[in-house]
Write a structure and sequence with these properties.
about 240 residues, alpha/beta, three-stranded antiparallel β-sheet, 8 helices, binds 2-phosphoglycolic acid
């Protein structure tokens, strides 16, 4: 695991966008694993600027998002599909039909999950997986537990996560109680991992990545098993 310490969120976002852009330039038909949440917004903004001003070309790329609330309609303003449209897809030339977000409105979650992993495999696997981290150490919606899931799966959200995400809804009662999430195996099979950690409230989760222990109660620690994982953190996350 490689750590990059940045001064602030702006620098973290720039460094992340540079790594993603390098992947797209090196392999234009690459497969990107994308994440939602507050953390990647700055990197997405920078990628949009690179597209507009530097001609960064996403026309041959494709993407798979980590997760989606369940049940959730794709056009709901809090859906992750909506988030991606607003923060990235509408700002770059990644063809819409090449973007995938798990369907939060499926009536057959097990089949949707199975088909999602099969689609990633058919696409040749993920070249670069972008991740945020929860205050509780989750990645995607692989929530802390005694056991974790390898494949894309339907999962209940923890109270911690519902509380953390309530800021985007009018109340905690409106936050969906479940999500469809890539599993730990779906994530760890990506050829490269890029984890972004920003802000004081991520300090405790980040500390779990420094030592050598792997702990299902902090799912991000499994990234230590990956041969090419980079963590970019800002000074607030680092210093607490
Ligand atoms: P955040 O979420 O970027 O909004 O902090 C990250 C996560 O919960 O995975």
């Amino acid at each position: 695991m490689r750590f990059i310490l940045t001064e602030d969120y702006e620098e973290l976002s720039r460094r992340a966008a540079e790594i993603i852009a390098a992947q797209v330039r090196e392999k234009p038909a690459c497969v990107l694993g994308l994440a939602t949440g507050s953390t990647p917004i700055g990197a997405y903004r920078e990628l949009a600027r690179m597209y507009r001003e530097e001609g960064l070309d996403f026309s041959r790329a494709r993407s798979f998002n980590l997760d989606e609330y369940y049940p959730m309609s794709p056009d709901h303003p809090q859906s992750y599909r909506y988030f991606m449209e607003k923060n990235l897809f509408s700002e770059i030339n990644l063809p819409r039909e090449m973007t995938a977000v798990p369907s939060g409105d499926t009536d057959n979650p097990p089949e949707t999950c199975r088909a999602y992993d099969a689609a990633i495999e058919d696409a040749g696997g993920i070249d670069l997986q972008l991740l945020g981290i929860g205050q509780n150490g989750h990645i995607g919606f692989n929530e802390p537990d005694d056991t974790l899931y390898a494949s894309t799966h339907l999962t209940p959200l923890t109270e911690d996560t519902i509380r953390a995400n309530a800021r985007f809804f009018s109340s905690a009662a409106e936050v969906p109680t479940h999500a469809i999430s890539m599993g730990m195996g779906s994530i760890l099979r990506a050829r490269k991992i890029l984890l972004l950690v920003s802000g004081k409230n991520k300090h405790e989760a980040l500390k779990n990545l420094y030592h050598d222990k792997i702990d299902p109660h902090c799912p991000a620690t499994f990234l230590k098993l990956h041969p090419d994982a980079t963590v970019i953190c800002d000074s607030e996350a680092y210093n607490g």
